[in-house]
Amino acid sequence: MAANFWTSTHYQQLMHPEDVDVVQQLDRDRGITLDDFKLVKMHISNYITKMAQLVKVRQRVVATAITYMRRVYTRKSLTEFDPRLVALTSLYLAAKAEENPEDIRYRFDIKDILEMEMKILEALNYYLVVFHPYRSLTQFLQDAGMMDLMQFTWGIVNDTYKMDLILIHPPHLIALACIYIASVSKDKDSVAWFEELRVDMNVVKNISMEILDFYDSMKNNIEERVNVIFGKLPSRS
Amino acid sequence: MSDLDSLITKKVADRYLKREVLGEGTYGVVYKAIDTQTNQTVAIKKIRLGKQKEGVNFTALREIKLLKELKDPNIIALIDAFPHKGNLHLVFEFMESDLEAVIRDRNIVLSPADTKSYLQMTLKALAFCHKKWVLHRDMKPNNLLLAADGQLKLGDFGLARIFGSPDRRFTHQVFARWYRAPELLFGTKQYGPAVDVWGAACVFAELLLRRPFLQGSSDIDQLGKIFAAFGTPKPAQWPDMVYLPDYVEYQYVPAPPLRTLFPMASDDALDLLSKMFAYDPKARISAQQALEHRYFTSPPAATNPASLPRPSHKGDNNSKVPESNPNEGPTVLSPPRKMRRVMPNRNDGGEENVHNAEKLDDHVSGSRLTTGRSSSRTDTIPMSIDFSVFGSRPPPRPTINRQFINEESCSGSLMMVEDL
C-alpha cells in the first residue's frame, strides 16, 4: 500500500506542525491557548473513541473519524464548530466513508448531524481517504519477528490519535515510531532490523520523542483542565 | 434536443450558470451548467437528501471519496463540490455521450481501429484504478462516457471501492448481470481487479458484436450463457471454482470455437478476448497486461480519439433503447438517459437497504419487462437471490442484505488486526 500512499491525497495534504498548531482567531478571543486547543482535541478524540464503542464500529473507522475531526480544526474554530457535534458527525461520516456496514444511522440523533455533515465535508475539502499506521504495523512486526509486541504497540498507535501526528507524518513512520518505543521499553533488540529499513531514523526517533513527551504531559490532571477550557467555549443547549 | 424555453439561467453558488436539466440521477437531478471561472461546460449532480435522513447519500459519498483520488485523462473528473440550499452538489466535466449510445447507433460503422481505440481507453482507465487499488465494480458501456474531444472516460464510481486489504470480504452483488464475472455469479466474497477485466471483456465483445454478448435473464441463466459461449469450466481450468459459496454443477457443454462467435474479429483480438474471459480469476489477464498485448501493437493502429464516430443524437431517448429480442429472454433496457440508469443491488454498504424498495435493480427491470412470463422455473432455481422469476417487484430482501453486511464487515465488534 505504500506506493498507493505516496500518490494519495492524504500524502499531498500532510501538514507542517506549525500549520497544525494554529489556534483560530475566534478561539483566541475566548482565551483558548495552544495547549488548551491540543487538550480539547485530545478530549474529543477520547469522546469519539467512547462513542465508537457504543455503536460498535471498527478501529479503522474510529481512526478515520478522529483524523477528520483534526483536519476540520486545522481550518475551523472550536467556537463555530461545536466539538461534540463535530465528534459525532465525524464518526458518522467516517463510518460511511470507510464502508462500515453497521447501520449506525439509527444509533444517532441524526437531526443535528445532517447539517454538520455538509459543513465538515466542505471543511475537509471533500478529501475522505485516510491511511492509518495499523496495516503497516502488522507487516512490520511480522517482518521483524516481533509479533509478541503486537498488542502493546497497537495500544501505542491508538494513543497517537490523541495527538496530531496523523496530520503531519506518513502513517508507516508513525507505526515505526510506535514499534521503536515498544521495543525499547520491552528491551527488544531491534537495532539491526531498523538499520535494514530504508527510512530516516531521525524522523522515526523524533516522532517517538513526541509520543513520549505526550505521555509525560498526560500525568497532569486532565479532567479539570478540560472542564475549564470548555467553560470558555460557547454553551450549547 | 432541449426545449429552448426551458433553459434557465440561474447562478448556483456564484460560479455556475445553471442550464437545462439532463436527467434524473440515482441520487438526484443532473443539470448542465457553465463554469464561469473556466467557461467550461459541466454537469452538476444535485444530491438529494435521502428519505431516510441518512445525510449525504452513501453512493455519492463513495464517488466523492474515490474520484478525489483518481485523476486521470480516462476517468471522469470531479471538478468541484459545494453545498447549496441544503443540498450537496457535485460538479463533473460534461460528457457528450457514452459507449452504449455508440454501440446502439445503427448509423455508426465501427472499424476494427475504432474498437481498438475504445478498448484501449477503457483498459487504461481500469489499469489506473487498479494501480490505485480501486475496483470499479460496475463496468458496462453505459458507464464509459465520451467527451467532446472523443476521449473515453470511466464514470459512475457509486459501486466502486478500495481493495487491497488481504482477506477482506466484499459483496458479490455488484455489476449489472450481463457484465458480472463467473466468480461473482458463484457468490465469491473475495475477489479482485479480475472482475473489472471480465466486465471490460464483455464491453469488448459488445463492441465487436454491436449487441450485449451474454444476456442472461437470471444469475443462473447468466452462468448458462457464459458456459454456452466458452464451455463449462473443468476443475483443472479453474481449481477454486468448486469451493465457491454458490457453486452449482452445470451440465458439461464443450466450447464452440471462439471464431464462430466473433467471425469478424482478428486473431489478435480473439486472443486478447479469450485471455480477458479466462475463467480462473487468477489466470485472467490484468488490465495492464492487456494493454501490453500485441493486439494493441499490431495493425490497424487504434483510431485517434478525436476521429472516433459520434452518435447522431447524443443522449437522445430513442438512441439508447435496444431492440429487445424475445428469443433471448428479457432485455434489460437501459433507461433513456444515462443518469437514470438502473442500479443493481446498490446495498452492499448497508446504507440504502431501507429505501431500496423504491430503487430498481436489474432483476426487477428484467421482470417488469416480461410481466406474464412464466415463473415455472422458480422451483428449480437453487438460489434465492434472483427475483426475476417471481415476476413482480421483489421484497426489500432484508435478510440477504444483512448477510452481505455482516460478511463485508468481517466483524463489527471485533477490532481485528486483519481489519485494518
Automatic annotation (TrEMBL), chain A:
This is Cyclin-like domain-containing protein. Residues 46-122, 135-213 form the Cyclin-like domain. Keywords: Cell cycle, Cell division, Cyclin. One of its GO terms (biological process) is cell division. It comes from Chenopodium quinoa. PANTHER family: CYCLIN (PTHR10026). It comes from the Eukaryota. InterPro entries: Cyclin-like_dom (IPR013763), Cyclin-like_sf (IPR036915), Cyclin/Ssn8 (IPR043198), Cyclin_N (IPR006671).
Automatic annotation (TrEMBL), chain B:
Residues 348-365 have a biased composition (Basic and acidic residues). It catalyses: L-seryl-[protein] + ATP = O-phospho-L-seryl-[protein] + ADP + H(+); [DNA-directed RNA polymerase] + ATP = phospho-[DNA-directed RNA polymerase] + ADP + H(+); L-threonyl-[protein] + ATP = O-phospho-L-threonyl-[protein] + ADP + H(+). Belongs to the protein kinase superfamily. CMGC Ser/Thr protein kinase family. CDC2/CDKX subfamily. This is Protein kinase domain-containing protein. Gene3D superfamilies: Phosphorylase Kinase, domain 1 (3.30.200.20), Transferase(Phosphotransferase) domain 1 (1.10.510.10). ATP binds at residues 22-30, 45-46. The keyword Translocase does not apply. Residues 16-296 form the Protein kinase domain. GO terms for cellular component: cytoplasm; transcription factor TFIIK complex. Residues 318-328 have a biased composition (Polar residues). The active site is at 138 (proton acceptor). Residues 298-380 are annotated as: Disordered. PROSITE patterns: PROTEIN_KINASE_ATP, PROTEIN_KINASE_DOM, PROTEIN_KINASE_ST. GO terms for molecular function: ATP binding; cyclin-dependent protein serine/threonine kinase activity; RNA polymerase II CTD heptapeptide repeat kinase activity. It comes from Chenopodium quinoa. GO terms for biological process: positive regulation of transcription by RNA polymerase II. It comes from the Eukaryota. PANTHER family: CELL DIVISION PROTEIN KINASE (PTHR24056), CYCLIN-DEPENDENT KINASE 7 (PTHR24056:SF0). Pfam families: Pkinase. Keywords: ATP-binding, Kinase, Nucleotide-binding, Phosphoprotein, Serine/threonine-protein kinase, Transferase.
